[in-house]
Amino acid sequence: MANKHYIRNWFKDFWGIATHELKQIFSDSGVLLIFLVAGLAYPLLYNVIYLNGILNDTPVAVVDDAGCELSRRYIREVDATRECSVDYHCANMEEAKDLMQKRKVKGIIYFPKDYQDRIIRNETATISVYCDMSSFLYYKNALMAVNHVMLEEMNKIQADQFRAGGFTERQVEELTQFITYEENNPYNRAFSYNYFLIGVILMLIIQQTMFYGMALLAGTMRERNKSFASLPDRFQGHGLGRIVLGRGAAYEVLYMGISIYIMTIVPAIFGLPQRGDFGDLMMLAFIFVTDCVFFSMTWSTMITRRESVFLLFLFMSPICLFLTGTSWPETAFPTFWKWFSYLFPTTFGCKAYVNINSAGGNLSAAGELIQAMTWQTIAYVFLSSVSVYIENHILKYKQK
């Protein structure tokens, strides 16, 4: 009988704490601004910014000191690629540098004087490519155009040499195609930048907006000499589960709706890849949102003032994006940053979302990542409970 009474009171308190937390959220305009306006508008804003994810016809200048048929053919083929457009033919490098400084071109292709002579002598000929590194896309386009043409030119030059040696056309074809290759990019055929980046940013928005909103509410309460860690005396030290899980349930319900919007509706609006099963995405959303809830609850205990949240916003988002391994390979991380990245749900959630939604995998394809988020959630549930327990004792001590 006592157990039934305890369970009934437990769920009654749990429900009361969850509904109280929702009332606190919807009564704070700053928190609503972060949760609803930022959470719903940021995914649209980023997609609009990167709507044209493919950069075509990057303007480049050519300095052709060789002035030969082979270099002219190479230039025509570079100009015919999707990536680059040869807009200027310069007499020397100084003229090409001047064009780059004036931002009229984004790259320079240089053919040395001995380009054709070295090819005729069966020696290695070089082509120099200089790029405007203010954007990664300029570098990518210039390098891809030159490399693609280079592969074609190698076959053509080799075929011309075989023909000059008296080989038949069939023999030439067999000799020049002894290594066949096929370019296949199944998940991003057009090398679109938004396909590469937006999926990661969408998951990052879920984590960051939840943390900033929860921390903003926690800082506001502490400024008013209140705290979520103040446990009623009737709990008698057994109310940690009700406080932590009750508060978490409020954010879980709210952010499951936001995450469904971010992970499924926004990609559909902008035509982003959606190769994953809806059920798998919902399971991933539940695991990721739960992880983010207790991550935010744990670290928000360190926020004592409302404005501290905005200072964190300035530098934490780029760091979290970097630590996902999207812009820099994780294998190249220093040891400290690799371990530091394990603090954030996005380190695992972003990769899992890409594996399922972009690559078309299932939950098993992201099994290790989901397992990591599960262990991370357990750790943060424990840490958030400990933080509430410690803060409650500090508050009781101050009252005495």
General description of the model:
By secondary structure, the protein is mainly alpha-helical. Helix content is 66%, strand content 6%. It has helices at 2-27, 29-49, 69-79, 93-101, 115-120, 136-164, 169-176, 193-223, 240-269, 278-300, 308-323, 335-341, 346-358, 367-399, and strands spanning 58-64, 84-90, 107-111, 128-131. Helix 3 links the parallel strand 1 (58-64) and strand 2 (84-90). The two termini are 36 Å apart. The model has no long low-confidence stretch (mean pLDDT 83).
Summarize the structure.
The protein is mostly helical.
Estimated radius of gyration = 29 Å
Broad structural category? mainly alpha
Largest sheet: 4 strands, mixed
Q: Which segments are poorly predicted (pLDDT under 50) over 5 or more consecutive residues?
A: none
Per DSSP E runs of 2 or more residues, the count of β-strands stands at: 4
Number of helices: 14
Overall, the morphology is elongated
Average per-residue pLDDT, rounded, comes to: 83
Give the % helix: 55-70%
Span between N and C termini? 36 Å
Q: Biggest sheet: strands side by side, in what order?
A: 2-1-3-4
Oligomer: single chain
Write the H/E string, N to C: HHEHEHEHEHHHHHHHHH
Strand content: 5-15%
Task: Write the SSE topology.
Blueprint: H1 2-27, H2 29-49, E1 58-64, H3 69-79, E2 84-90, H4 93-101, E3 107-111, H5 115-120, E4 128-131, H6 136-164, H7 169-176, H8 193-223, H9 240-269, H10 278-300, H11 308-323, H12 335-341, H13 346-358, H14 367-399
Parallel strand pairs: 1-2, 1-3
Antiparallel strand pairs: 3-4
Helix pairs in contact: 1-9, 2-8, 2-9, 6-7, 8-9, 8-10, 8-11, 8-13, 9-10, 9-14, 10-13, 10-14, 13-14
